[in-house]
Amino acid sequence: MQALVILAHGSHLNPDSSTPTHRHADTIRETGAFDEVKTGFWKEEPSLREVLRTVESDEVYVVPLFISEGYFTEQVIPRELRLSGWDVSEWDSDGLSADTATLVAEDTGQTVHYCGPVGTHEAMTDVLVRRAETVTGDPDVGEGFGFAVVGHGTERNENSAKAIEYHADRVRGMDRFDEVQALYMDEEPEVDDVTDYFGSEDVVVVPLFVADGFHTQEDIPEDMGLTDDYRTGYDVPATVEGHRIWYAGAVGTEGLMADVVLERASDAGADIDAAIATVREATRETQAAGD
Amino acid sequence: MTDVRDEQVDALLDRVAERPVELDGLRVTDDDDGYALETPDESHDGLSEPELREAVRSDHVVPYITNWYFWEEAIGRRGRHRRAFLRHAEAADEHPVPERYDALRSGLETEWGEVVVTATLGADGHRRYEIRHVDDAGVDHDELDAYHDPLSARELSTYDERGRYRPLRTAPSLVSGWVFPDLDGRDAVETLDTIYPASIANWNLEREGDLDVTHWRETAERQTGIYDVVEELPPDAVDWLAEACCVDSQCLKRREWQYDADHDLEADGGTGAFPCREPCSLVVAAARKWTKLEEEETRTYEFELTPSEKEQIEAIVDAVADDRIDEIREADVYEGANRYRTRFLRAKRFDEAGNLAGVATEPEEGHHDDHGDDGDRDDHGDDGDHDDHSDRDD
Ligand code: SF4
């Protein structure tokens, strides 16, 4: 028996914070690739502390639905899951390359394949691009478009900026969009000045965040000038200084995210190739703009 | 009469070939003299296979066979917490099979927090489970919204009656009006575990004498990042915290954690069906706020209030703390926490800056300051991943 456990932050104040996590879990559950698919949260229930005891399987693949390596993936999760003898050097990571470490959970005795976060997996680049397709309603979007990946900034966690740069580079390498730029909320180049960084009239802006929340729903749209007051909403696309800004909201809400979760588990040894194909198929529909 | 299917008998024979079958009063063995079959009221030995097949079909033995099949083959022993709960739901360890079958025909009820699970006998000894809110006991099925997928329970338990988000799954505010009319054992447990996550595992660990309780001190010491301050919360305040958050009126879990292994808290731990083995994230987040507030020294302020006004302030605090605001009628000015009466008090006793009786909170500044720690909003310096600043408790 093999189980998948997806871990996320969750929130005491905002129920939407965990919605994408549940949705991705449901998508994967439907593939039948795992005997069990469970979710656990830092701020909701079951807690990280207790999630493993809700799992009957002895073999557990744990995938953190976080953007970057750092405090949560290196300290909080291993500690709360009671991963015996955890040492971050097991990942031997440069901040982007954490893949998997196999450990035993002290309290339950389960074998835990602890994976790196979804945000730094190469498959995440595809999700960013898919997000652009979804928000524009155009499966071939690229030509004549600029593409911006938005992150928090390096102020707090250097690795978070690394993930942004990494995916921006990879999107650039696809030669699909006319221009690609990494932007930040807290540092240069700032998302506030998004139009300064693009020559293209159309620009897709995708925040590399797991769930929609304060930053993606309030800060970023206001900072970019899509709206004066987030409560009144904004258009997609919205015109700002002669550019059409296609603002996509958090990448983590994209259905294809389930694929990255599976890729992480697969890299850690889970036998689920068929499920990956199914998820890619099932999450393909491109919705019309603004949906 | 419940019947026994051929495949159930075949399964029994397969098992007996490996080792003696023994469950709930049924014993079947296979040795050199043939098969032996034993129930509390009957025993046969030296049976040939056809004789055994014949014997298990007697009216008296059939329930033992279907009962064995259900527990050992359908439920199995893999999910030990699940199995334990389902056996608990029909008090399987206390009542003999025939008695239990009789009771299951009319339904056996188990309360679990705010829900009630009813176990009944299905075809061939299978059990079916119905789950609904305790408030809906006795309500006709047609009047309730029926669900069949355990995961639907997620939606049902996310918001309270007034549409507010329930961050604590065990708050006694589960909405009613729904029913899962027909679940198998796996889905029944999944449904309960969606409504009250990890409740079944912890309940069973406690039953087995194996519940790992982590007391306040240990939990506080483990915290890092923005939560490492909770360690400094004074012991008295931990008691107030438990009284504020963990009593039955606020949380259905029975609090098993104490200040530490040697110091019990005075606050009532509650009487819930399932235990709380460690301060939850909500309590830890609240503790962080209180740790900061408890660092403040008291001051002496001088207010002019009439006796009724003092009592009114007490009534307001009570009404908010007990979540009774909505019960206070619009025109009931006899209630201290009535809105009009409260507005009158504010109009009379607050100055323009919102200071009670015109007394400034900070004497030197002369203005009302309740935004002293807005820093909280932005205070998760430990995580670039965390993307929800509106989550003030994070
Ligand atoms: S810590 Fe208190 S409020 Fe939290 S789950 Fe336990 S008993 Fe309930």
From TrEMBL, chain A:
Q: Name one GO molecular function term.
A: lyase activity
CDD domains documented for this protein? CbiX_SirB_N
**DNA damage found in the keyword field:** no
Q: Where is the signal peptide?
A: none
Which Gene Ontology BP annotations are present?
A: cobalamin biosynthetic process
Could you list this entry's UniProt keywords, alphabetically sorted. Answer: Cobalamin biosynthesis, Cobalt, Lyase, Metal-binding
Domain of life of the native organism: Archaea
Q: Does the keyword Coiled coil apply?
A: no
Q: InterPro entries of this UniProt entry?
A: CbiX-like (IPR002762), Sirohydro_Cobaltochel/CbiX (IPR050963)
Record-linked PANTHER family = SIROHYDROCHLORIN FERROCHELATASE, CHLOROPLASTIC
Task: Quote the protein name from its UniProt record.
Answer: Sirohydrochlorin cobaltochelatase
Native species of this protein?
Halobellus ruber
UniProtKB/TrEMBL annotation, chain B:
Q: Where is the DR2241 stabilising domain?
A: 97-207
Domain (DUF7348) ranges:
6-76
Segments forming a coiled coil: none
Any idea where the DR2241 4Fe-4S iron-sulfur cluster binding domain is? 208-289
- Which residue ranges does the record annotate as region Disordered? 24-48, 355-394
Cross-referenced InterPro entries: DR2241_Fer4, DR2241_middle, DUF7348
User: What protein name is recorded for this chain?
Assistant: Uncharacterized protein
- Organism (species): Halobellus ruber
